[in-house]
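Hello K.,

You asked for the raw outputs rather than the summary table, so here they are, unedited. I folded two proteins back to back in the same session to keep the settings identical. This is the first:
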Amino acid sequence: MMVKEFTSPLVAELRANKGVIQRGDITVKLAEFYGFCWGVERAIAMAYEARAHFPDKTIHITNEIIHNPQVNERLHEMEISFLQGGIGNKDYSVVNEGDVVILPAFGATIQEMQYLDSKGVQVVDTTCPWVSKVWNTVDTHRKYGLTSVIHGKYSHEETVATASFCDNYIIIKDKEEAEYVVNYIVNGGNKDEFLKKFSKAISKGFDPDVHLQKVGLANQTTMYKRETKEIGRMFEVAMLKKFGPATLSEHYAEFDTICDATQERQDAVTELVEKKDIDFVLVVGGFDSSNTAHLKEIPDKFNVVSYHIDRAERILPDNSIQHRLVDGTVVTTPNFLKKGPLTIGVTSGASTPDKSLEDALERIFLLHKIL
């Protein structure tokens, strides 16, 4: 299904050789699962078909189709207009009756969808089915009077959309924030401090003394699965302590909403670094791509050197590399390639075309030859 311009002969060669190829002194080991997932391919294909099917219409898209600069630049070239404004503050004044509006793979808020429906536009909904599955889960929470605990980033487009389907919610970024919340559930605490800490990550009128009595777990599909599971366990134990085993099911609910593609890519990188037979891992994907950022976290946990780049041009002719750290800082590391034999593990985020991976590797091959 992948759009042809994003394919790669080099990556095809890697697949044909069980994920390993040799170029001079460099051995490349490709993670078993990497790159475009089905949901991303589907979203891009639908956007391309929208332009082909509506050649003379004005086409808008509410956000980046996916978090990949090359793909979004291509849509710009196809004269697909990206609506201006931040999340929750989009400028819809340019959208007219009869226009076409694409919803990205992350989805859109229920308020946006209702507004577009009232405008009489043609909507092309590329929302990933896994995201829709999360929406169904939080809708179940709502029906049973549960507060949705969403493991995610409160400013991420997908999480903003998911929260719009909830009556009551709290968004938790990591285990540290989860520990704070479960401690409040069990032991109580300073309500004002709580509300200040989560001011951007809770529903309107949220009261921790009321809305943390019955909770259900959901997640941003690109989060680290192991952390989501651990957070779920923390809330389950907290509810068990507070309410006892007899009524646990009335106070805590959990459904599996982890995206298969996200989990496969995380497991594949874990397998790659556990063997300790690579010099570094090259992670290719957008700097604002959540799933790619989590791939970068895995080699760090195993103390394996890794470089997260968003495009091949980050690999510079002077043998330096501009790369993103786990905390989001972009730094430049000099002399990142060493002379002699080198083994590189490679992976790419679910929103990264194979062509981006090829372009990065070809730069490394060329650079290593002239060291």
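The second followed immediately with the same parameters:
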Amino acid sequence: MASAMLEEGTWYRGLAGLNEWDLPIMLIFASITVLIGLSFSQGCSRTVTSSKTGLTPESVNYHFTRSCNYKCGFCFHTETSSYVLPLDEQKRGLKLLRDAGMRKLNLSGGEPFLVDRGKRVGELVVYCKEQLHLESVTIVTNGSLVTEKWFELYGASLDILAVSCDSFDQATNERIGRRHKGNDHLESLRRVVEWCHTYGVLFKLNTVVNTYNKDEDMSEAILGLGEICRWKVFKVLPIVGENVGSNAKRQVDEFLISDADFTIFVDRHRAAGLDKIIVDEDNEKMQNSYLILDERMRFLDCTSGAKEPSLSLLDVGVPDAICESGFDAQMFLKRGGKYKWSKSESNLDW
């Protein structure tokens, strides 16, 4: 009976009224669909992990430009591109991040005040604070291009302004590369500190400890600046493709220090009365504990020692992009990533 059905071509029709070619074609199509599905799941295997852990972009560092007017020899985010997204696309991406849970945004570079002479970073600050209503909006800058007029226009919407300064000796700053034409970096620093106090913006200091400043005692100079909400002290960080390798824009070798050198520097300044404001980060704490967004709104995964970009969140959305960020949420908390990051939480009594 069965053989008769096969010979007569009636077995397939007995299943679903199909002709003898329909089922093989359907099986082939189903196989292709399964293979495509497996390919996509393997291409972003961390999507599953991300959804299970509920990874949220609570605090994001947006390096919206790579261009800079300084030439710091150890820079780990170099000018490999001059691209800057249009403002409307930046706003679209930032809204996606806010809707996904972003509470704090740090705007960085490169040098953020290079783009449109500071107008762009000012517009982003106002948009994030006044329209997205983020808890905290901050900027990291070298300070050389900041003007008082900028504070008049945008300062009310800014929570924290951080200036990078590695030494209170001008010759050391110049040796490191913190210079631009005839600019006096320390003069720029002190000017920005004064404006922060005048316009009610919290001031933060960032320092990268390296070969040329590891033995310096900055205590007196820092205490002389007045109110500082935080002093971030980083151990110089090697990153392949940025400051390591034949294709890198910088070469970090001459700036590298030992763990002991870094610890001695931190302990020296803690003992001098700066313990309450120092937040020290060695390479282990720093490398994977930041959600870094590049100029095309791609998360950068540093777990391999290089910066591997995700797909842009503008194209795939935040959940699919953040799964390739390599972000270590536990280390973020361990290094003190959550703190009083809004000026509304602080008593500004300058």
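Residues 22-43 form the longest helix (22 residues).

Happy to rerun anything if the numbers look odd on your end.

Regards,
P.
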